[in-house]
Fold these 4 entries.
Entry 1:
Amino acid sequence: MYVERQVGNQCRRHALNAFFQGGVVQWGDIEKHAADFEAFYHIPSTNQMRNDYDFFNADGSSLITWIGHKLLPERFFLVLPCGRVREWLDHLGVKDFDECVDDDPRIMVFNADHVYAMLRRGNQWYVLDSLSPTPYTYPIDRVLTDAKLGIIVALSPPTVSNLAFHLEKNIVGFLNKFPGLHLHTVARILSNGRLGDAHDTLENWVFTRLRMSAWLRGKTSRTNRLFRHVHLIENYKEEKEDNDKLLTYSVVFS
């Protein structure tokens, strides 16, 4: 198995190369991807993202998922955050983790200070960690339930389609708790604050589902243009009202 030995603070590079089983990225590539990632998500280059390995956006993306998608665009990379992996798998309707990643059994594991890869061979999961570059077996259930660990998964299109459908059910189930039209309900939520003000994971459900749908439907789809446009104007105060309308659309109609 391919594992690199730690150099400086370059564990992101080592984890990606272990995940892809080869020297596919250099540190200069990481820095270029970081600049593109920050520009797309309006993240200042001085943001803590540079140092916090557990940083992720509302749509389940991080610097590592951004790079993963560039290297393997036929897979959808998703963050399951530290200490909430099992909870988020439940939100996504995943009952059997091995089944979720069965056709490509490899993940990246992270905490606030470090990231490494794990691969499954047969029935065993192996840790490929630049801080301990000799592979060793480790129970995947302990990773999924560790309060200090999060994971990044690379999902196939059929799996992403199923998860996006389950997120839609979550969103509809939440909105059905309110009387009146869904559109009015969501518009009221947006006019008073973020989606997260209404429910602690509604914003994640909405943005993750939108990113999934954009990825599934392709770069030229209207859904992908909506996803990109939402991020294009998200921080422009003079266009906030238009952006709220787009988010409402993404919740109710997309």
Note: The beta strands are 76-80, 106-110, 115-121, 124-129, 132-137, 150-155.
Entry 2:
Amino acid sequence: MRLLEAVPEQRRGECWWLVLRDRTLVAGDEGGGVMLLSEIHLTRPVGRALWLLRLSPVIDALDRVLARSRKRLSPLVPEGPAPRRYP
């Protein structure tokens, strides 16, 4: 939780948070989706295109819709610990 020290405790559970390499915090519902796509090597061109087209609010809205649909999506992505990778 040291990475989220700058975030007020009541805001920590509101959404997911992205912590960049320089320790900049980006809220998942305030541009985090596009920023995450921009940070991942394979999706970097998509993230940059979304940023240039100023579609971050659209991605944030999609994230909120998916978050509200979590119960219906749970059979596809069950709650709990992630599968372990083989060494």
Note: Residues 2-67 form one domain.
Entry 3:
Amino acid sequence: MTFRTLVLAAVLASLLGAFVLVRPAGGAQSLVRPDQLRFRLVGDEQIASPDGRNVVANWKVVILRDSASGQCYTMFVGGAAMTAIGPNACP
């Protein structure tokens, strides 16, 4: 090995060590406390078929409450598609 290769290996090792020391240990962390958020999750359920025995694949209903106005919003979510209805009365 040449001197240049040894220096390059030492620099890469120190950068890797610095990356391991600097990254957060607990994974993703929220910067906002939950009591400061404006929208709160009320419900998140799958959609039943008309006969009530099956569920509609990859679709669900999500209901969010707006803490500022007290109104609720209903969202239908299917994969990457989403549509929202509201404001409406909260359950």
Note: DSSP finds one helix and four strands in the chain.
Entry 4:
Amino acid sequence: MRIYFLLGAAALAYAGYEGIGGNQELVKMSLSDVAKQGVGDNRYLELKDCYATSVIVYDYAKEKPDAAREVYFPIMTKGEFISQMVNAILDKDSTQTTAVLAVVKRDKEKYRPDCINGQAEGHSCLDDIVDLSSEAYMKTGLTLRGTVKVGADEIDAETLRLLKDSNYEVPEKLILLEENEEPRGKPLSWVMLIGGILVFLGVLATFFGK
């Protein structure tokens, strides 16, 4: 049991540590700007000119393989999006990869668990934001807001594998945008960090007590 307390305390401290760093004020950028200069120290972004297809990757419980617990989808610049669409129209080599700057973790309030493969009354997990028949979408793409984490290791290995299996090129400095999430704030992050460390040390001390 104490092992679980140790792991929980370590996770709490790490979450607090992550929340301390970076600029947590909202910054507005285009995805093309991110491609050129990265996100820097910014951890709360509004990204415009983002493009996505209907491709999703989802996490699910083994006992409910048709219900999504979490939904992820890759976004790309307009240039990469147009290139992918042209290749699809021309039926080019299906093994050709598409570069991805960022992956979005969908807001759970924005989809139903049975949205996978359009099962939710004919709707998919992205119907509210991706419409390839829309002139407005094809012109300006999406505007997405949320907290940002940088690094492919911020996404679990299975999700990364599925993205790569879908012919997406995943960089080491992949950006994970958690849709509609707001920073928790530095004061709370400090509390989590210090609290996690104290609990960890307290539980650890019991292993050496009499």
Note: The CA atoms of residues 72 and 105 lie 5 Å apart.
